[in-house]
Amino acid sequence: MATQTSSLRSRGMEMLMAYKQKPSIKLRNDLVRLNAGLVRKIAHRVSHQCAEPYEDLEQIGYLGLIRAIERFDPSQGCAFSSFAVPYIRGEMLHFLRDRGSTVKIPRRWQDLQKASQKLQSSLLRQYGRQPSDHEMAEALSISVKEWRQVKMANKNRMPLSLDATVCHQTDSTITLGDTLPDMHYQLLQALEEDRQQLQRALSQLEDKTRSAIEFVFFKGLSRKEVAERIGVSPMTVTRRIQRGVDQMITYLHPQTLQTDP
Predict the structure, then answer these.
(1) Is the pTM of this model over 0.85?
(2) For residues 162 and 175, is the Cβ–Cβ distance under 8 A?
(3) Which ranges of 156-233 does DSSP label H, i.e. alpha helix?
């Protein structure tokens, strides 16, 4: 057995050296077949740590193996298996990260979901139809209520796309994103409403008072500069601004008149 393993390693290294010197699809495919056991071993290990099917992980692992074959340098003196494992495992972990759920499903439910995938195929052949919830629950030795919870958790573990259609109109469709409030737009809308209210309040003021407020607060002029522009003293500018602000507050927040019954 040891001799056979050593022979395989030696053959594998010869193939890797040949591929490094003259890459070809045929030689790469031969190397993939030679190292398929490494992919299967890692896929089995990772499949016990997640809810993804083993078959999907195995297929993704082969992509990592191909990357390792293309980047391996035999002259570095490193064993190919040690070099390839991080590539294979990394490709699987990237796949799991991309499909990662924001909803954390209990480990027991993940195991039940994996077991159900195998049972559904055999029950489909047995009954000639999709098994009912009661039949699936009985096959898994759990209650119907828990089986339905497992199904619901697996169905909802991935977030919905904002492009998902929620309503069809005559000439258009409404997506999930269309129904969500745009906080930035709402803020801009509120600011625009405030601006319009201030503008209406300003328009109620006397011309010189309105000019004084606009020069000071909108254009950043000093009271002395404003006084020269509108032909009054700086003290008068201050009084006009104070009076104008009070008038605007009254306009924006009118007092409710109290009348005796």
Answers:
(1) no
(2) yes
(3) 176-179, 183-203, 207-213, 223-230
Largest CA distance in the chain: 110
Q: What torsion do the CA atoms of 249, 251, 252, 254 make, to the nearest 10 degrees?
A: 100
**Distance from C-alpha of 170 to C-alpha of 174, rounded to nearest angstrom:** 11
Specify the DSSP element, H or E, that contains 220: none
Structure tokens at 98: 């991309």
Angle at 223 between CA 221 and CA 227, to 5 degrees: 105
How many Å from the N-terminal Cα to the C-terminal Cα in the chain?
A: 107
**206 close to 234: Cβ distance less than 8 angstroms:** no
| pLDDT single digits (tens) 232-252 | 888 998 998 999 888 888 888
Angle at 5 between CA 4 and CA 8, to 5 degrees: 85
Say yes or no to pLDDT of 199 above 80.
yes
Question: Do 24 and 71 touch, CB atoms closer than 8 A?
Answer: no
* Residue that is written with structure tokens 């006009």 in the block: 240
Amino acid found at 166: V
pLDDT band at 259 (very low <50, low <70, confident <90, very high): very low
Contact 95, 43 (CB under 8 A): no
Residues paired with 175 in a beta bridge? 165
Would you give the DSSP letter of residue 259?
A: -
Q: How far from 235 is each of 129, 225, 232, CA to CA, in Å? A: 91, 12, 8
